Amino acid sequence: MADDSSISNTRPALGNLAMLWRFARRYPGRIAGALIALIVSSAATLAIPNGFRLVIDKGFMGGGDIGRWFEYLLMIVIVLALASALRFYFVSWLGERVVADIRCATQANLLRQAPRFFEENRPSEIASRMTADTAIVEQVVGSTVSVALRNMVTAIGGLVYLFALAPKLAALLLLGIPVVLLVLIGLARRVRTLSRASQDRLADIGSAATEVLGAMKIVQAFGQEEREAARFRATVERGFATARQRIRLRAMMTAVAFALIFGAITGVMWLGAIDVAAGRLSGGSIAAFVLTGGLVAGAFGSLSESWGDLLRGAGAASRLGELMTAAPEISPPARTHMLPPMERGARLTFDQVRFHYPTRPDQAALHGIDLDIHPGETVAVVGPSGAGKSTLIQLALRFYDPDAGAIRLNGVALPDLAPADLRAMMAMVPQDSVIFAASARDNLRYGRWDATDAQIWDAARAANAEMFLRDLPQGLDSFLGEGGARLSGGQRQRIAIARALLRDAPILLLDEATSALDAESERLVQDALATLMQGRTTIVIAHRLATVRSADRIIVLDEGRIVEQGNHAALIARDGLYARLARLQFQDGMAD
């Protein structure tokens, strides 16, 4: 993701708002309605001073029917009210619709990203961008742009009317506008930088809050409430300090704009009063000039505030644009290959695979791995922590691409397959079971969304999850809480196993699948898994060696290398690393 300086130096600030226009232009009818209402409301606003001119010159001074001119003025007010209401409706609708589309587009692109992206970009910061930044974008599209356009139309139309009323006074007033613009542009550059910095500090606040709230049990268990409160307070204060600088500068912009504009108007009004005294202007004309001048001054003054909001929106748009346009590292090939069918499971081959995690570029996770897993074979991968066991599964699912070597499924290199086609061949039970804040039914059928309730219950029964699921208040419709907070660790793990069972894929990936189960539940699940493994290719990652004794082949990894392989009896007889690990776990109690 680009840093702040590269963004501000390579793209013009307001150029980032072009992204918003790409979404807004999908709704030309709403844009046309908003523009028509905006023009009508601005025209009605400018017609009010002319109405007062007619009331004064034709009604009070001319001795005519004064009621007629007040009716004219009232009609203008009614038109203004209706047009303003329509403008508000159309632009507010556009703001909400554009933000909804941007959120969906951003989320869709994030779902295409490889895990490396989320290692380099904190998910909590991403969430902040999709909430706080989109709120700013909504304000810009649904209000700021409309207000800025209205003020611009009012300012330009007002100047035209001022020239029609009193060309000399209008020309003098116009001379002060370039001075105002030069000052505002100079201040706006600093506002742009502070606006982006303010958004970054806001993301830091959201990230800090999410991190602590997600680890509340640990915080309280170790008595770190005060320290975390102080750390969060410091983050908030840094955000406030940046926001204070931005507010101070925007206040200065507003003060300068109003002082220069209204100062110029005051001087021009002074000259106008002299012309009225000399009979060169009528009373109605000077009244209309004063009112229009006030509208023009207010419009230019409001433009300075809108400019600051637009710059802030441009900063938010650039941050969202980074998420929306980030190219996925793992993407489908231009020409995908079909997978040759196999009778039993699938064949997975690792050929001289070498890999470094992006966060540990100096430490290889795998060194020249050669491994051929045959269709229907159950292969267990064991070894010390950090040996590279889970990395094999990460590469098999193509969450990462190896630095060297190749991985093939049924003889086809993984980069030649669409990631979705590859992953459809696999069902995984991760070490840390993931439970979504949804119903039990939706969690269970996550791998096979069209599964019937009968199929769901069959999978739950096989995973030894049926009993506790039936005991839930609403059964499969029960809400499981954030991260499965209403379940125990073992229950969460059994739901993850049932989910994989329901997927019914040719390759089964078990990463410490029974680590959170008690002895009785583990035995029942192992029996279910034994049935499931029949006719499937299975990779079992395990620390507890008792769970892999029946595997067709056991691969022993150490420091990213295969140091031993064979069945349980052969490895025990060899008296190598596997045998030493077995003795550590069972105190020499493991029998052949």
Automatic annotation (TrEMBL):
It comes from the Bacteria. SMART domains: AAA (SM00382). The keyword Zinc does not apply. Its main location: membrane. InterPro entries: AAA+_ATPase, ABC1_TM_dom, ABC1_TM_sf, ABC_transporter-like_ATP-bd, ABC_transporter-like_CS, P-loop_NTPase, Type_1_exporter. Gene3D superfamilies: ABC transporter type 1, transmembrane domain, P-loop containing nucleotide triphosphate hydrolases. Keywords: ATP-binding, Membrane, Nucleotide-binding, Transmembrane, Transmembrane helix. It is a multi-pass membrane protein. It comes from Sphingobium soli. Residues 348-584 form the ABC transporter domain. PROSITE patterns: ABC_TM1F, ABC_TRANSPORTER_1, ABC_TRANSPORTER_2. It is found in: Cell membrane. SUPFAM superfamilies: ABC transporter transmembrane region (SSF90123), P-loop containing nucleoside triphosphate hydrolases (SSF52540). This is ATP-binding cassette domain-containing protein. Residues 32-312 form the ABC transmembrane type-1 domain. The keyword Transferase does not apply. It holds the Pfam family ABC_tran. GO terms for molecular function: ATP binding. The chain crosses the membrane at residues 31-52, 72-90, 140-163, 169-188, 251-273, 285-303.
